[in-house]
Amino acid sequence: MQKQVTFKSSSCLPSFRKLLFPLLFITILTVFLIGRDISFPYIDFVTSTSHENIVLPSALHSQISHLQNQLGDLLEQLHTENTDSKLVVKFTDLVLGIAVSVDRLADKLSHLYGDPPISQNCTNKMEEELGDSDDSEVEEGSMGERIFNSGKLHNYTSPKPNRQVGKKNFLGVEAVYPSIGLSCIGAASSIDQYMTYKAYGICPDDWVVAQKLILGGCDPLPRRRCFSRSPQQYSKPLPINSSLWNPPTGTNILWTQYKCKDYSCLVSNQTIGRRGFFKCSDCFNLSKRGWEVPSNETESAEFTIDEVLRLKSGDIRIGLDFSPTTGTFAAIMRERNVTIASATLNLGAPFNEVIALRGLLPLYISVGSRLPFFDNTLDIIHSTLFLDGWIGLEVLQYVLFDWDRVLRPKGILWVDRFFCSKKDMQLYLDEFTKLGYRKLLWRVVPKTDKQGNELFFSAVLEKPQRS
Asked: Distance between CA 82 and CA 159 in Å, rounded?
């Protein structure tokens, strides 16, 4: 494969060759040293009756990654150098071929990295031979290498230099530092499973694994270099003027991980108890709108949307609904020219898919995650049938303060039908009161579908202006 490169002048070719060939020598020398320094005692053969596992030293991954970076730097130099030399073009193709081969090798070895069960002396010797970091760097920088086996995860979390190495980008940094959640350390085997995939292939159908990791605090999850699966018979979604209130086409949902295998199962009375979800049991029945009929203040804790919007006439434009939902609240608000993002997980059913197919914005996020909005930006936050008596007070505090962070001054927090036992209600009311918000609407009523020992609480609260 020949690279067609246009150069301004060949006058710099001598100086370029002075730079090029030392880099090539360093690259070849690195390959030689890696091959020389790795001896068989550091490859652990674990024999069983069914298969044979080979575990490579985790420090080897760092060396291969370093070699990949060197080759990338060399290719960058080759592509930016101004010369008409056919020799250089041919050499560029050669280096590119080496880089591709090293990438393939790294991918083939990605599942073999780990800490082999060898003695401490051997471990120390291996680190001395394969690593050149000082003690503090090893302790802080190689935590993931001692815990995770996935080579793809090590590659993902390593810093990614800008194309112009050593120069800061518009963000003011010289490299991108991909992140994963701290709690991923406690789920090493699951995250290794999640990162087992074929690069540039189809991703495993494992969103359930991903969601369990997110719920366990492994958030953000590492990105992957594979293509997401899609329904085989995906068709054009309904136009926005009909998608809000009509059931979406079932072929546009990938049903493999759900108990229900079609949309009718989500709404049929015959499937109650066998749908795979219980929160927001009527969510998928899009004929049920809600928040539109005024209720008896002594019997119901539900406010209407129009009642709330009148409190801030014309001021509510954008906001968040943090609820188990298929987007009905957002759909009604859209009809009133208010844009709402609907934050929910897929709690046994395709909540996010249905929100999107209705032409609304789904936000796939857990209660333990910091909201992806900047400070003082939203006009309204609404939450219903989510913050209930299950939540601990400390978690509730962090959630409320994060909501406070993204609400703008004079923005409103709509707590919609929070319920808990009578004996706990005052504890929760105290947490909402501590925010110092102005009470625009406030209602506590009995929850009548139980044995009389629970209460509903609803409120619309205005965030104060703080200096």
From this structure: 29
Distance of CA 59 to the CA centre of its chain: 27
Residue scoring higher pLDDT (130 or 181)? 181
- At 281 the pLDDT is 81
Q: What is the 3-state secondary structure (H, E, C) of the chain?
A: CCCCCCCCCCCCHHHHHHHHHHHHHHHHHHHHHHHHHCCHHHCEEEECCCCEEEEEEHHHHHHHHHHHHHHHHHHHHHHHCCCCCHHHHHHHHHHHHHHHHHHHHHHHHCCCEECCCCCHHHHHHHHHHHCCCCHHHHHHHCHHHHHCCCHHHHHHHCCEECCCCCCCCCCCCCEECCCCCHHHHHHHHHHHHHCCCCCCCECCCCHHHHHHHHHCCCCCCCCCCCECCCCCCCCCCCCHHHHCCCCCCHHHCCCCCCCCCCHHHHHCHHHCCCCCCCCCCCCCCCCCCCCCCCCCCCCCCCCCHHHHHHCCCCCCCEEEEECCCCCHHHHHHHCCCCEEEEECCCCCCCHHHHHHHCCCEEECCCCCCCCCCCCCCEEEEEEECCCCCCCCHHHHHHHHHHHHHHEEEEEEEEEEEEEEEHHHHHHHHHHHHCCCCEEEEEEEEECCCCCCCEEEEEEEEECCCCC
Residue 344 has pLDDT above 90, yes or no: yes
Average pLDDT of the chain, as a whole number: 81
Q: Is the pLDDT of residue 27 over 70?
A: no
Task: Find tokens 């105290």 and name the residue.
Answer: 430
Query: CB under 8 Å to 346, separation ≥6 — which residues?
Result: 207, 211, 352, 353, 364
The more confident residue out of 118 and 67 is 67
For the ranges 93-97, 196-200, 403-407, the maximum mean pLDDT occurs at: 403-407
Dihedral sign, Cα of residue 117, residue 198, residue 227, residue 209 = negative
Which residues, including other chains, have CB under 8 Å from residue 332's CB and lie 6 or more apart? 289, 290, 291, 292, 305
Q: What's the half-sphere exposure (Cβ side, CA atoms, 13 Å) at 450?
A: 12
Q: Which pLDDT tens digit goes with each residue over 33-54?
A: 444 444 333 333 333 444 445 5
